[in-house]
Specification:
By secondary structure, the chain is α+β, with helices and mostly antiparallel strands. The protein is built from 11 helices and 4 strands; from the N terminus they run ααααααααββββααα.
Length: 318
């Protein structure tokens, strides 16, 4: 008798919290965000309402981040970057990068977790952003959104209007490394009508992570994008290390009050070194004889008031 193969259960959300960099106080928000409409038939028990909220939270977070970090960009350029960063394709890449599909509650009619369309990945990503916002507030959601979408922002800002990842990598490689990328076909599998291609980028003898796609063009674009993300991440790490080294080399700043004290001590030391020490005049001690020769003054006696005649006494006294 054949054994029944149990349906694959979603992974523990604690792993997802580590990937998000955020721990939920109310886990029901995250559970609701990971529930696809195909999993339940009851109303308001799926992630559609969270998806609606997450779209606005995502738009505001990216708009504010771009406004603060790109002060030299005009309104049209900011709009172009934002539309690319919050697109369905970009959100789907974020979802696949942190393996959101492994934590989702999905119905049998949706198919395999590995073959979910981009729209499903983008929707669950927005729902998770809304869950973070409801649980921890706007700043917590802003931190998670920027951290996950920063590679997409770096790629789009460096593209100068080009959405082709291969051309972006070509420009970046020639500018930074002085060489051109090569695309290596790692494997090819599947039937003729549904093949899967796995391609990796080789740059200056270094092999970057592989990417699989249903066409060679899709796999090459994905591999190029992953290589760009890795190069940008390395550049950020180098910049942070250099900044930390400069901060360590600088002398430690004292507080304002301590600085004033040190300054006052230095000025006092300078003045005492310049001016010579003055001799204080000694007072002459008076002898006891001189004190005794002086006549002692007698205390003054108080005069008694004289009696005055009452001016109103016209008759006088007998």
């Amino acid at each position: 008798m054949a054994k029944k193969v149990p349906q694959k259960q979603p992974r523990s959300v604690s792993i997802l919290e580590k990937q998000l960099g955020y721990s939920f106080r109310k886990g029901e928000f995250l559970e609701l965000a990971l529930t696809h409409p195909s999993f339940t038939v009851e109303e308001f028990t799926d992630n559609e309402r969270l998806e609606f909220l997450g779209d606005s939270v995502l738009s505001l977070s990216i708009s504010e981040h771009l406004y603060r970090t790109l002060p030299r960009c005009a309104e049209g350029e900011l709009t172009r970057i934002k539309s690319s960063v919050v697109s369905t394709a970009a959100l789907a890449r974020v979802s696949r990068k942190i393996s959101l599909s492994d934590f989702m509650h999905i119905g049998k009619g949706l198919g395999s977790r590995a073959k979910l369309p981009d729209s499903v990945h983008a929707n669950v990503t927005e729902a998770v952003f809304a869950a973070v916002y409801l649980d921890g507030g706007y700043l917590a959601a802003l931190d998670v959104i920027v951290r996950l979408l920063q590679p997409e922002i770096d790629i789009v800002t460096a593209s100068a209007g080009s959405e082709n990842a291969k051309s972006q990598l070509q420009e970046l490689a020639q500018k930074e490394l002085g060489c051109s990328p090569r695309y290596r076909l790692v494997s090819e599998s599947g039937p003729q009508h549904g093949k899967t291609f796995v391609i990796a980028v080789e740059l200056g003898g270094r092999l970057f992570p592989e990417y699989s796609g249903h066409t060679k063009k899709e796999a090459e674009q994905g591999a190029a994008r992953q290589a760009i993300e890795e190069l940008h991440a390395e550049k950020r790490r180098v910049d942070e290390q250099q900044k930390q080294g400069k901060d360590a080399a600088r002398p430690k700043k004292t507080t304002r009050r301590a600085g004033r004290r040190v300054k006052a001590k230095k000025e006092a030391a300078k003045t005492t070194a310049k001016t010579p020490a003055r001799k204080t005049p000694t007072k002459r001690k008076s002898s006891s004889k001189a004190k005794s020769s002086k006549p002692s003054k007698a205390p003054k006696r108080r005069r008694k008031p004289r009696g005055r005649k009452n001016p109103y006494d016209v008759l006088g006294r007998d």
